C-alpha cells in the first residue's frame, strides 16, 4: 500500500487521502464531493476571518489559489442553497452541527457576496439554537481552513468520546 493514495490507519485500511471517500454523501453530487476534496487537499492556500454577531455570523474566506477559490465559491453558494431548501447532502464526515441547519433552514437569512477580498457570508437567525449552531459551525470551518482533514479527525474523535 505504500505510496498508493497516502493511506494511513489500521493496516493501511484507514483513510484514503487521495480519493477522500468520506467527502462523498448519500445525497451529494460528484461535483460537490470534488469541490470539498480540492479545498481539503489545498487548505494551506485558504484563510478565514469570522465575526460572531449576536444573531449570527459574518465570515470572509479566501484562497490564493484560483481553483480553490472557485471550489470555495461553488461550495458556499451550493450549501447555502441546500440549507434554504432543507436538502441535506449527508456527507459522510459532516458535522452533526449541520443537522439543525437542514431541519430549520427556513429560519436562516443568508447573504453571500463574492469580492476580490473573498467570499463574504452573513447569516442571521431569530432562533437562538440556530445562532448557537452558526457560531459553532463557523469555528469548525475555521479549524478546517487552518488544519485541513486533521481538524475533521479531531472533531470526530471528540464526538466519539462524549
Question: What layout of secondary structure does this protein have?
Answer:
Elements: H1 30-41, E1 46-53, E2 56-63, H2 66-85, H3 99-103, E3 108-115, E4 118-125, H4 128-147, H5 149-161
Antiparallel strand pairs: 1-2, 2-4, 3-4
Helix pairs in contact: 1-2, 4-5
Region (Disordered): 1-23
> Largest beta sheet, briefly?
4 strands, antiparallel
Helix content: 40-55%
Number of domains: 1
Terminal Cα separation, in Å?
Answer: 33 Å
Number of DSSP strand runs = 4
Strand order of the largest sheet: 1-2-4-3
- What structural class do helix, strand and pairing data support? alpha+beta
Q: Count the DSSP helices.
A: 5
* Relative strand content: 15-25%
Uncertain runs are: 1-14
Radius of gyration: 16 Å
H-E order: HEEHHEEHH
* Bulk shape: globular
Q: What value does the average pLDDT take? A: 89
Describe it for me?
The chain is an alpha+beta fold. The protein has one domain. 43% of the residues lie in helices and 20% in strands. It has five helices and four strands. The chain has helices at 30-41, 66-85, 99-103, 128-147, 149-161; strands spanning 46-53, 56-63, 108-115, 118-125. Strands 1-2-4-3 form a four-stranded antiparallel sheet, covered by helices on one side. α4 packs across α5. The protein is globular, with a radius of gyration of 16 Å. The model is unreliable at 1-14 (pLDDT under 50). Residues 1-23 are annotated as: Disordered.
Short description, anyone?
The chain is of the alpha+beta class and 162 residues long. The chain contains 5 helices and 4 strands; from the N terminus they run αββααββαα.
Amino acid at each position: 500500500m505504500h505510496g498508493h493514495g497516502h493511506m494511513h490507519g489500521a493496516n493501511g485500511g484507514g483513510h484514503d487521502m487521495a480519493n477522500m471517500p468520506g467527502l462523498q454523501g448519500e445525497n451529494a453530487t460528484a461535483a460537490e464531493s470534488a469541490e470539498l476534496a480540492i479545498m481539503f487537499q489545498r487548505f494551506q492556500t485558504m484563510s478565514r476571518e469570522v465575526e460572531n454577531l449576536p444573531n449570527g455570523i459574518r465570515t470572509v474566506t479566501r484562497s490564493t489559489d484560483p481553483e480553490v477559490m472557485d471550489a470555495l465559491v461553488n461550495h458556499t453558494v451550493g450549501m447555502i442553497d441546500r440549507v434554504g431548501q432543507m436538502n441535506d447532502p449527508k456527507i459522510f464526515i459532516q458535522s452533526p452541527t449541520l443537522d439543525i441547519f437542514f431541519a430549520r433552514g427556513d429560519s436562516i437569512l443568508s447573504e453571500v457576496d463574492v469580492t476580490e477580498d473573498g467570499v463574504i457570508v452573513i447569516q442571521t437567525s431569530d432562533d437562538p439554537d440556530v445562532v448557537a449552531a452558526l457560531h459553532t459551525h463557523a469555528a469548525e470551518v475555521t479549524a478546517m481552513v487552518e488544519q485541513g482533514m486533521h481538524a475533521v479527525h479531531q472533531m470526530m474523535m471528540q464526538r466519539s468520546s462524549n
